[in-house]
Specification:
The protein is an alpha/beta fold. The protein is built from 7 helices and 12 strands. It has 2 domains: 102 residues, no CATH class; 148 residues, 3-Layer(aba) Sandwich (Rossmann fold), CATH 3.40.50. The strands form 2 sheets. It has a 6-stranded mixed β-sheet with strand order 3-2-1-6-4-5, with helices on both faces. It has a 6-stranded parallel β-sheet with strand order 9-8-7-10-11-12, sandwiched between helices. α3 crosses α7.
């Protein structure tokens, strides 16, 4: 079913806010006859559902299949379709035309969940926000976890940490920075998060602390594959000392992983 652009992009915004990657399919070139003209749009969800229409029938089914492939590999693509004329993927239509469709992958802003609200958390939230991350702050300290200190946070959750994280709907694409400071609380949080399998968990601390955590985790049944998402000590080694410098080193590491380096 064809829908107007305002509705289409409104639904796209909702999907992106929920963390879903989508494909925006746009007819960018048309030769001869075809069911829709240049500029016709359709959005394809990651589960194969769609909003809008750029032709219907077998053509649209093939397009959805290609869009799902593009969503999976994360790279936008220009695809040519034959509607009974010219080159491109055969659609079975006999309109006599030829279409080129841009399948554009649109990803939500990456999400960083900061566990802690102390001296490093504040510049980390600021730098991450500048770099395009949606920031969520989770802490058990109501004195430091405030909207005045973290106005850039999309959510601020102040309650016992393990409980807060168990209630938070994590995504497989999430980045998490554990910078709380209490060793046993951090260990409990780390165990909870490893079971949830986000994309990245960074832990602030010395190499000795990290080694001890790894030793305890292995005793409790976590294997090297489970620990592959753990980056500790957190951040790229740039000899950072101040909270601001540490924040930069952490965000640099997030970007490196986000871009696949």
């Amino acid at each position: 079913m064809s829908v107007d652009d305002a509705y289409l992009f409104g639904e796209a915004a909702k999907l992106l806010r929920s963390g879903e990657t989508i494909a925006l399919c746009i007819i960018v070139d048309k030769v001869g006859s075809g069911p829709r003209g240049v500029g016709a749009k359709m959005i394809v969800y990651g589960d194969g559902k769609s909003i809008g229409s750029i032709g219907g029938g077998k053509f649209e089914r093939i397009l959805i299949e290609r869009a799902l492939e593009v969503i999976k590999n994360g790279h936008s693509k220009l695809v040519e379709f034959s509607l009974g004329s010219g080159s491109g993927i055969e659609t079975g239509l006999i309109c006599g035309g030829n279409l080129k469709v841009l399948i554009d992958v649109i990803k939500p802003n990456p999400r960083l969940i900061i566990v802690g609200s102390g001296s490093i958390a504040k510049p980390l939230a600021e730098v991450a926000c500048i770099a395009g991350f949606e920031v969520i702050v989770v802490d058990d300290n109501e004195k430091t976890a405030t909207h005045d200190r973290f106005p850039m946070a999309s959510r601020l959750i102040v309650k016992p940490l393990v409980k807060a994280l168990s209630e938070l709907e994590l995504r497989g694409s999430d980045f998490i920075a554990i910078i709380h400071g209490d060793v046993e609380i951090e260990y409990a949080v780390l165990k909870e998060l490893l079971r949830r399998k986000p994309r990245y968990i960074g832990l602030l601390g010395s190499k000795r602390k990290v080694a001890e955590f790894r030793r305890r985790l292995k005793i409790e049944g976590f294997n090297e594959d489970d620990l592959s998402i753990l980056h500790a000590p957190i951040g790229i080694d740039i000899n950072a000392e101040t909270p601001g410098e540490i924040a930069v080193s952490i965000v640099a590491e997030l970007i490196k992983i986000l871009r696949g380096s």
